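Researcher:
Attend to C-alpha cell order:
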Amino acid sequence: MPISPPPRPGRRSMLQAGLGLTAAGTLSACSGFSTGGSGGGDSSAGTDELTMITWAGDAEAKAFQALADGFKAQGGPTVKLQVVPYSEVLTAVDTALRTDSPPDLFRVSYTDVAAYRAQNVLAELPDASTLESSFLPAFWSAVSDDQGTFGIPHHTDTSMVLVNNAAVASAGLTLPTSLDQAWTWEQFVEAARRITPTRADTFPFAVNWQNAGAYRWLNFVDQAGGRLLTEDLTAVAADDAGMLQALTFTRDFFRQGLVPQSSSSRGQPASDLFTNQTVAMVFAGDFLLEEIDGAGFEYSATFLPRSTNASADLGGNALVAVEASAKKDAALDFLTYCAQAQQMGEFCAAATVLPTRTDVDPADLDYTVRPDLMPLYVQQATTIREQLVEQVVVPSFSAINGQLRDRLDEIFLGSDDDATALKRLTDGVASVLGQ
C-alpha cells in the first residue's frame, strides 16, 4: 500500500525509509514567474510535438533522445529536446514561464523541485500511486508533498574523490577501497600534503562546490555532526559547533595552499582543474566520468573523507511536466514512460548515473563508462544521511544555495576570523528564511 508523504517540512519518515540503499546538483534560485494557469500556455511546437528543456552532456543527450524515440515508437508524440548549458537551464525555464510560452517538460535537480512546486508550476502525476512502491522513498519524497506527486525521480548521483594515478603513485599513497577504510579528515589532508606539485600551478586537490554546487559544502558540515538548519527546518543553526568546525577545516584548504584560489565557490569547475591536471585529486560526481575519461590519463576513485560521520551529497534530477502546458496529459504520459524499470536502467547505464527504482540494481547495468568505478559510487551513495537530505529539499533551498555560493566565496578568499566568517554565512541564510 503506497505511503502518503507528509507535508513539508515533516519529511523524516519518508527519508529514513529510503536512505541507506542508494541515494544521492542544484541550480540557482527561481521565483517571480507567471504560471499562466492550468493548460493555458501556448507552445511553439506543433500539436503532435512536446518540448523538453534540459541540460545534458553528450552521453545524456543520446540517452534522452533514446527515451524520446522509444516513446514515439510506442505511439506517443515527438519529444523535442531543447538542450541548454547547465548554468542556464533555470533561466531558460523561468523565461519561458514568464512569457507564457512554457515548455511541456523540463529536467530539474531535487533541490529545486520544491521552489517550482511552491509557485504551482508543476503538474501532478496522475498515476503516482501505481509507481510509488517501486521507488526509493527518499527520492519519491523529493518530488512529493501533502498535495500529491509532481514529477518522477529520474536518477541519482553522488560524489567521490577521483585521483590521478601517476600523481598518487609518486606520493606513495594507498587508496582506501571500502567505506570502513575511508580517510579521516586528518588522513585526507596528510595524504594531500604528500603530493608534490609537478609544475608551478599544480595543487593537491579541488572540491566540487563551485556555483550551483555550493550545497556540497554541507557534506563537511554533516561529516562533523553539524547542521545548517535547525531540526524543525525553519531557521538557521547559527551557533552550530559542527558548522564552525567544517568552516575552519575547509578554509584551511585555501589558507594552506592545498587547493587553487580559483576553485572557490564562484570559481572554475573542479572537474576542469582535474582534467587539465592542475590538481591531482578532485571531488566529482559519477555523471562526470564520461568527460573525465577523455582527459588522456589514468585515474582511480576513493571515498569521501569522514569525521564524526561519513556523509555524501544528494545528487540527481527529476523530470517534471508543466501545469500550464497545453499538452500536459501527453507530457505526463512521457514521464510515466521514463519512470519504467527498463527505460531507467538503460538511461542510467548510458549516462553513468544511478537508478532510483528499487527493482533496478546498478550491479546489473551495463555501464559504458568506467564500470569498475560505479560499484564504488553505489557504496558511497549509502552514506547520504537523512539529516542532510531534509535540509537541502526545503522549498527555499534554491535561494539558500545562492547564499552559500556567495558567502563561501567571500569566506574562502577573505581574511575574517572563522567565527566572524561563519556569522557572515549564517546571516545570509537567515535573510532567505526571513529571520
In short: Confidence is low (pLDDT under 50) at residues 1-46. The chain has two domains: 12-157+315-371, 159-311+396-432.
